[in-house]
Amino acid sequence: MCGIVGYVGNKPVVPLIIEGLRRLEYRGYDSAGIAVGSPRSDLELRRAPGKLRNLEEVIREHPLHGTFGIGHTRWATHGRPTEENAHPHRDCSGRLVVVHNGIVENYLALKHELITEGHKFVTETDTEIIAHLIEQELSSAAESGKTMPLEEAVRRAARRLTGAYAIGVISADDPDKIVAARNGPPAVIGLGEGEYFVASDVPGILHHTRDLYFLADGDVAILTKAGVQLTNLAGEHVERPVQRILWDPIQAEKSGYKHFMLKEIFEQPRAIRDTTLGRISLDTGKVYLSEMKITEDDFRNATKINIAACGTSWHAATAGKFMIERLARVPVEVDYASEYRYRDPIADPSALGLLITQSGETADTIAAQREMVAKGMKTIAICNVVGAMIAREAHGTIYTHAGPEIGVASTKAFTAQLVALFLFAVHLAQKRETISTEESSRLLESLSLLPGKVEEILRTVDSVCEQLAKTYSTARDFLFLGRGIHYPIALEGALKLKEISYIHAEGYPAGEMKHGPNALIDETLPVVVLATKDNDNRDSRLRYEKTLSNIQEVTARSGKVIAVAIEGDEEIKQLVDHVLYVPSAPELLLPVLEVVPLQLLAYHIAVRRGCDVDQPRNLAKSVTVE
Question: Which positions are catalytic residues (predicted)?
Fold first, then answer.
């Protein structure tokens, strides 16, 4: 969702905040704003609709200076993306401002209450009521002849909010101070020497500090030049561990690539390698997952694996179902996290919950995790951000080590999730003794070869996809087909295309073609078919033969077929219009390879259509509210 950056220190505050917002613009880009102050001046605001560059132009025309401040880049939920609705928002006095990521669910009731008390509102947002609630607390104290510190007013106001929020507050009457609070969306506090930061995500401040507090729900942070204090909403002191982030800040830059998405596609060999590193032994054929508070008996006696995830992570989860059931021989149920708790799921305390999320802060996935725990399950998180909420609340974590992913359309995080799921499946199978040492060793050796195979795909397929984009960038619809474990990859290919090119695309099980999709096929419809095979796997060969029949159904109706196939497959060349070749691999690892051409195809089509690849309209990177 929205991006927040705040700073207290001795450096020029405006360029620092703008720099941080630029690194967080993937979280929202409908509007942006900044507010700064100093001990000798009132707060000054600048806001602008649209992307961050519009705010920068406003600041060039009307400069501002200060020693502390907060900035915001918005993804609209309440209110249109206008300058009026852009953050920060003032109270009636104009002496304090608020930035907010989240949704205040009871804002209408609070707004009506405040209006009856004489407060006047100028925006359509739910955020503005937070500023007025804080003002109300400060005014009530002043009328009683008391002086209330800003943080106490924030705590009291926050206790009245229902919903999700991460907020930053500054006041002209309490200078050189930022108060931040969290309930739901992420908030991190950066620790420096005589300077302190708040942000909604690590990349916003990583160029300035690697030492961070990750706020928990109900935490309030008070930042001054003297340091950081952490309390709960009752004002009681709380302790949070300092997390040292090892990401290289250069990883969050484009490194010469035209877009972050392309850079992240090409980073996949490294992400796969890093996710595997230290977790497998080719000598013993064992998988080692160290960050687990789950016993061997829990793994051995698990009656089911319940997986919850959203978007791309749900596609990884669905592929993971095939891996886990095939290797560990335990039933797997995959839910959309946004639906899980609303269907009153039947949960067995002997089942294990598995949550998959890139950010570790996805609101729906956290809610699903808490529902699982409430029903007696132990949970495991697959997550890319060390110290994120979902990892802190899990009984075990498999970090993907993909590094920061800036492009809204997930690429390297997805393939790293597939690898993490494969590691989990093998680990579970070993604990349940459903896999032989020989098979385990063979699979782990194949896993160790994946980075080199992805590098080969990137070398050979990128230019082919760029050429295909010239032919198919004007298509109005796409169909993606796959069977078995490859069906979720068809879904992911369709999602990537629709996310960044705005072409309608649909993923479908190839075996269901006769039950509806055949009606869509004509000479204008490109159909992408996942037609890979593992020659050492009988079921895979059978699936391949069935898929060839589906291809013939498409070509018989004049559809244009783009096939993803294994290197050396000459048979398929005779049946389709185009082939994107990938190296061979065991059936359960093929998804990692075959998704890469689909990512490249979506990317080049979007570029050809002139779309904003890194920041597709109406989408944000981390969905931290429901």
Answer: 2, 621
Catalytic position from the list 2, 310, 383, 611:
2
Average per-residue pLDDT for the chain: 90
**Stated pTM of the model:** 0.73
Catalytic position from the list 263, 378, 412, 621: 621
CB contact at 8 A, 1 and 624: yes
CB 480 within 8 A of CB 528: yes
CA distance 528 to 512: 15
252-435 has CATH 3.30.230.10 classification: no
Q: pLDDT, tens digit, for every residue of 553-599?
A: 888 787 889 999 999 998 899 899 999 999 999 999 999 999 999 99
Pick the CATH number of 3-245 from 3.40.710.10, 3.90.550.10, 1.20.120.450, 3.60.20.10: 3.60.20.10
Above pLDDT 90, what percent of the chain? 61
Alpha carbon 14 to its chain centroid, in Å, reads 28
Q: In the 8-state DSSP scheme, what is residue 238?
A: -
Alpha-carbon distance of 456 to 442, in angstroms, equals 21
Query: Do the beta carbons of residue 518 and residue 525 sit within 8 Å?
Result: no
Are residues 74 and 87 in contact, defined by beta-carbon separation less than 8 angstroms? Answer: yes
pLDDT digits (tens, 9 = 90+) for 71-104: 998 865 655 667 777 889 888 788 899 999 888 8
Token pair listed for 135: 């003002």
In angstroms, the CA 301 to CA 342 distance is: 27
Asked, colleague to colleague, whether 3-245 and 450-620 share their fold, the answer is no
| Interatomic CA distance for residues 471 and 493, integer angstroms | 18
- pLDDT tens, residue by residue, 121-152: 888 788 889 999 999 999 998 888 888 999 99
The answer to whether 481 and 527 are in contact (CB under 8 A) is: yes
Measure the CA–CA gap between 521 and 90, rounded to whole angstroms: 55
The CATH label, of 3.30.530.20, 3.40.50.10420, 3.40.50.2300, 3.40.50.10490, for the domain at 450-620 is: 3.40.50.10490
In the annotation, is 383 catalytic?
Answer: no
Tell me how far apart the 2 most distant CA atoms of the chain are, in Å. 87
**Does the pLDDT at position 252 exceed 60?**
no
Task: List the Cα angle 131/21/157 in 5-degree steps.
Answer: 20
What's the number of CA atoms in the CB half-sphere (13 Å) around residue 118? Answer: 5
How many angstroms separate the CA atoms of 378 and 366, rounded? 14
- Residue 102 Rama label (left phi>0; alpha psi -120 to 50; beta): left
Calculate the CA dihedral of residues 354, 265, 492, 479 and round it to 10 degrees: -170
What confidence score (pLDDT) does residue 250 get?
60
* φ/ψ of residue 580, rounded to 5: -110, 110
| Torsions phi, psi for 237 (to 5 deg) | -65, 140
pLDDT value at position 337?
Answer: 92
How many helices (H) and strands (E) the chain has is answered by 17, 26
- What are the residue ranges spanned by the domains of the chain? 3-245, 252-435, 450-620
For residue 545, give every residue at least 6 positions away whose Cβ sits within 8 Å of its Cβ, in sequence order, or none: none
2 is catalytic: yes
Q: For the chain, what is the radius of gyration of the CA atoms? A: 26
Q: How far apart are CA 95 and CA 414, in angstroms?
A: 45
- What's the number of CA atoms in the CB half-sphere (13 Å) around residue 557? 18
